Amino acid sequence: MRAMDEFAGKVALVTGASGIGAAAALRLARAGAGVLCCDIDAAAGGALAQAAAGLRLVTRQVDVTAEAEVQAAVAAAAQAFGGLDIIVNAAAIHPFGTVEHTDAATFARCMAVNVGGIALTARHGIPLLRARGGGAIVNLASVQGHACQQGVAAYAASKGAVHALTRAMALDHARDNIRVNSVSPGSVRTPMLALSARTFDGAGADLEAVFRRFGAAHPLGRIGEPEEVAELIAFLAGPRSAFVTGADYLIDGGLNAGIGVR
């Protein structure tokens, strides 16, 4: 099957319209899928819609912590394209701080977006996947769910929870022929990584210089690109991974393969 029609006739819901989410939405649409991509940031959705001109890709403003909005987005995807086969959960926030310095509202919001959003798209999307005879869900986790840096307590906790939720969903819905996997990127050129750079180096930081420093910590010597993560997502969402479920895939330039001792 040619890459350009790998997802012909398939329908995907993608959360997160910038960074990895945007790259995944474009990758699936360019391979023939009908895609609805949603984000709380209307500007991000607008930029993605422009980039997707000519593709079967629509955007929608959605807060993934609001169940009614998620339910409506799932229904809109099915109405626009005729069903639902794939869910990619990329929407996330990245607060910084220790547990001592992260207030309860920030911690709760991080869990609600990064973990609860996945539960809501699954709650309303799985019946539609089941009606199509099965499908695939890909959740965006992080290397921070395996081993983390300092000052990211809420984010690391949420991504560890994504790993556990992915396994639970995979077991619960294997009988429905619904495969559920996660991907754990290292440093990737996204707005979230830019936020990290500005947080640790100041608002006026030279982003490319900081990205080079971040990249040097990875054995491959660079940060990743969103399109590289999108390729892994496409693999897990499609027929080439038909016997893969309940797994997490590191895509981190070798970051977690080593230890800090030199």
Salient structural properties:
single chain; Rossmann fold; 8 helices; alpha/beta; 262 residues; 2 domains; globular; seven-stranded parallel beta sheet
Overview of this structure, please?
The chain is built from 8 helices and 7 strands. Helix 1 packs across helix 8 (226-237). It starts with 10 loop residues before the first strand and ends in an 11-residue tail after the last strand. Helices cover 45% and strands 15% of the residues. By secondary structure, it is an alpha/beta fold. A 7-stranded parallel β-sheet has the order 3-2-1-4-5-6-7, with helices on both faces. The model has no long low-confidence stretch (mean pLDDT 96). The chain has 2 domains: 8-186 and 226-250, 3-Layer(aba) Sandwich (Rossmann fold); 187-223, no CATH class.
Number of domains: 2
Instruction: Count up the helices.
Output: 8
User: What composes the largest sheet?
Assistant: 7 strands, parallel
| DSSP strand content | 5-15%
CATH topology tier name of the largest domain = Rossmann fold
H/E element sequence: EHEHEHEHEHEHHHE
The overall pLDDT average reads 96
Task: Specify the helix fraction band.
Answer: 40-55%
- What does the radius of gyration come to? 18 Å
What would you say the CATH architecture of the largest domain is? 3-Layer(aba) Sandwich
Question: Globular, elongated, flat, extended or rod-shaped: what is the shape?
Answer: globular
How does the helix and strand content classify structurally? Answer: alpha/beta
Distance between the termini: 46 Å
The strands making up the biggest β-sheet line up spatially as 3-2-1-4-5-6-7
Given as residue ranges, the uncertain stretches (5+ residues, pLDDT < 50) are none
Q: Please provide the count of β strands.
A: 7
CATH superfamily of the largest domain: NAD(P)-binding Rossmann-like Domain
Q: In CATH's first tier, which class of the largest domain applies?
A: Alpha Beta
